[in-house]
Amino acid sequence: MYQEQEEDFLVFPEECLDNLASVQTTVDDLQSAERIQLVLDRNVQVLLPSQASTKVSLPPEFFIVSTAEIKAEYQKRTEKLESEMILKTKNMRMKEQNRYKSNYKYCLIRIKFPDCLILQGTFGVNEHLSDVLEFVKESVFDEQRPFNLRLSSGSTFDNEHENMTLSELNLVPTTVLLFTNDPPENNEEHPYLKDELMALVQ
């Protein structure tokens, strides 16, 4: 009983009392150890255009909407309509966008190459564009050859964008970037991606 509330606790066995020194050593090691940084698995995939556009077949039951879902959707649309009727400052709009983005922890980035192959990787929303550029650089056959990434709308990224997060660049929760570069000087043709990644194509 602690502060009039029951809590679970562990009991240290009496037979271990003679070995308290090793327990203290273990505790000290745990407290002084450096924090282990988790590394996000990119879950790299190389897709053909047909695979990237594959539609999932869903059973008819999937589209059945319950009364509670209808009410929730009606409430959501009502709130959205009321929100759109309010004059908002730029800061207010930014806060709403950030609140929407905060629902996501990860995002899916797809890079489409001129040969129509698509390189796919998973990133944290707070990773930077520079992380995506490094990911692409490590994936292409010729790492020394300059390249650019641009949005399907035609917008490109400047050096100042490299230190911005994917969330700040509105690339969350998923986006497709187009890969562009200059043709090789020796005119030798080779797949854009490294051989080990080309082996992932199914």
TrEMBL record:
> Which residue ranges does the record assign to the UBX domain?
102-179
The family database entries (Pfam families) matched by this protein are listed as: UBX
Q: Which InterPro entries match?
A: Ubiquitin-like_domsf, UBX_dom
Provide GO CC annotations from the record.
cytoplasm
List, alphabetically, the PANTHER family matched: UBX DOMAIN-CONTAINING PROTEIN 6, UBX-RELATED
Q: What is this protein called?
A: UBX domain-containing protein 6
Per the UniProt record, the source organism is Schizaphis graminum
